[in-house]
Amino acid sequence: MNQEKIKQMIIQWEQKFPVNEWRIEGVDLWPYIRIKLYLFLLNYGQQKKPSVRKTNKSIHRNSSGQRYFQSLISIPRSLISLYFFFKKLRPKSIIFFGAHFHRTLQDGLYFNRFFDPMIARHNLKTKVYLFEYEKVFENSFNHEGIIDLHKNLDKYKLLSKIKAKFKFRPKRKQSGLKRYDIFYNDLTNEIPEAVSLKITEPELDKWAIKISNTKNFFLKVYQKVKPEKLLFLSYYGYDDLAAAILAGHELKIKSIDFQHGPQTNVHMAYSNWTKHPENPYNTMPLEYWNWDLESKINIEEWALNTKNIKSKMVGHPYLAYCLGEENNVKSRDFIFFSLQTLTLEEMLPEKLLSVIEPSNSIWIFRMHPRSNFNSNDLKNYLYKRGVSQENYFIQDALKVPLPSVLARARLHLTNFSGCVLEALMLGIPSILIHEAGREIFQNYIDQKKVFYIDVTNYDFQDKLEYLLAAGTSKIINSQKKIVNPLLEE
User: Fold this and answer.
1) How far is CA 14 from CA 22, 37, 271, 334, in A?
2) Residues 6+ positions from 66 with CB-CB distance below 8 Å
3) How high does pLDDT run on average in the chain?
């Protein structure tokens, strides 16, 4: 199912049902449902290997009781830890929300590619907190300003869960979501596998309660920190971030999504929102800060129909930070390939490999931060298909700054990576070789700086070889300014 079809399908449902009225426990539900549905449809029909779950039966038999007992004995420790956590919080102007996979090694420290350039350039260390989810690297830039979100939030959730066991909550009438039952029946009749989304009314009820409860943690944080702005690298996909945004709306703190990749007119987290409540959806940000004009316009097309939502172009801080104001970066004779989370067979098809092996250029394969394979897997795949190790290098995205390498490449190849935008800002030509890339970057393809070659066409190799031979570029660094988030209105 291609992205254009997915977009039209979601828009039709959005128009047919009162999605802007779907709310439980004061939590707007449509952003959660819509984005879950979008991500599901992107992978719909793809075969996945069945996972094998290993269970230790003796542990499994007692795990529920053990977990409950462990929860009880950890209550005092959690209470004390949370008391000191909240006590240590100090007023700050901004709270950033990011993850370890947004970082890369820069001068021996793990550097958040989007937030840390702003912090470093404008001396904001004492004025910000960065809430890091998933995990925290010890040797991170501005480590003293980083807060391990889950280390503290998990303790709060534990106490809330135990407290809820002794709290009576009247059962909600399931008819509260106007025509939702018809929507759900339509969806699951058309796509039976959509039951795996877990968006029945009772399941939405549980989700909304969870978000509402988690919101209270962030309310306490914001009341102590008193931030002017909340900045998120991708507002969707994590329930805890939905709760953080919800708390921001309640306290009238400006919430901002800072662009971290493609935000094109088929990305349904950022495009074609055709129905809105009277006030903005309270699980979505109020502002969107974009790298480039195309991204800004894409969001503006629907944001202008609302009262409060804004879309701005602020540039790409990391490109500016790495390159400074240098306009004469020397190009080298290598080709940069940005890998993704596809299978190796789909990402590096035989037709492409047949061009790599005899080429005179060195190829750099840059691993995706969340890749589902490792460098040895890639080496073995290339070796079995006759690609010599003398022809390429494999690069770890967390260990090598992207701009400093990409800026020196002769060409950039990818299936549909967001590096297309970064290459374009640096004046490096990009070649897209996947249908999804054509869909996502259709507004950027000009056959001058951004090319599309269909890998299924008989003449793919000829066209690719021609572009590889002709591809030259002059670096035009338009990324001189790093936005100051405190001054941006």
Assistant:
1) 12, 12, 13, 46
2) none
3) 87
pLDDT band at 479 (very low <50, low <70, confident <90, very high): low
- b/e code 145-156 from CB counts within 10 Å (16+ = b): bbbebeebbebb
Q: Give the other-Cβ count within 10 Å of 279's Cβ.
A: 11
Residues 6+ apart with CB under 8 A from 415: 340, 342, 346, 347, 432, 433, 434, 436, 437
What predicted TM-score, i.e. pTM, was given to this entire model?
A: 0.87
Q: Which residue in this structure is represented by tokens 């979505």?
A: 284
Cα gap 315→484, rounded to integer Å:
11
Residue 484, number of CB atoms within 10 A of its CB: 13
In whole angstroms, give the CA distance from residue 36 to residue 184. 14
Predicted confidence (pLDDT) per residue in 283-296, tens digit: 999 999 999 999 99
Q: State residue 392 phi and psi, 5-degree precision.
A: -150, 165
CA 306 to chain centre: 24
Locate 260 and state its tokens.
């971290």
Q: Per residue in 74-116, pLDDT tens? A: 788 888 899 999 999 999 999 999 999 999 988 899 999 999 9
Closest CA to 403 of 279, 311, 325, 318: 318
